[in-house]
Predict the structure.
Amino acid sequence: MLGLPTAALSAFGYARFIEPRWLEETRKTVVTGRNLRRPLRVAHLSDLHASGLIPISFLEEAFRRTLAMQPDLICITGDFVTTDNDFDPAKYEAALQMLSAKVPTFAVMGNHDGGEWAARSGWFSTNQYIRGLVGRGGVRVLHNDAAKIEIAGTPLWLVGVGDWWSDELRAGPAFANVLNDGAPVIVMNHNPDGKDDCGLRPWDLMLCGHTHGGQVMLPFYGPPIVPVIDTRYAVGLNAYQNRWIHTTRGVGNIVGIRVNCRPELSLLIVT
Ligand SMILES: [Fe+2]
């Protein structure tokens, strides 16, 4: 008679205390067809969700392991926080500086970072506070903006768009200065449902988060809840109109549970 409750408790303990902290490093190759001097190593992190559930010490471990993958570039696709203040902002900034001091690090904002959606959840009505925190961490936020950088002699366009749920995605200004000059174009876009707003502008690879991969993957069923309309792009590397969308499972989580959906540190080898 004790068997069933014991198994249920064990399963809950695993989903609550083991898997959410069990980071998985993944490596995927993205073929752009562009002429690069050498493959670029792009670390894609997302959904850090610093909060009462996700301590900064866990993020520090994630950042150490990210740096150990020797990326050329680090892209963080939003949701730096959840909807509480249960973290030390100075400690968070110092943790982000671990990354930015070693590797060029760029980011966009997610729905949890402030804006219309967050305000409806009783949180920041703009992303000003989180953009400030992230900026003090040495991370450059591209909010409907673009930058041309150079990695190992290879020029690269980086575009960052505002969050789709927050109604801040403005592809026009984001791409306004991007030239179709042969350099690869990587777009950071928190929510993959925003892809169609970017449409067929010149981009090769879009980096997304937001879904956390569903957080709970039931055998023979998949995730019961995925907060996107187009579930084809909910997780992983998927083709879209002769280009690629990568949606990572993210590092942190909300509600504290993961099942068959470990937190992910992605390294994309862009060729
Ligand atoms: Fe998130």
Summary: The chain has one domain: 3-270. Residues 3-270 form a domain with the Purple Acid Phosphatase; chain A, domain 2 fold (CATH 3.60.21.10). Residues 47, 49, 79, 110, 112, 210, 212 surround fe (ii) ion (CB under 6 Å).
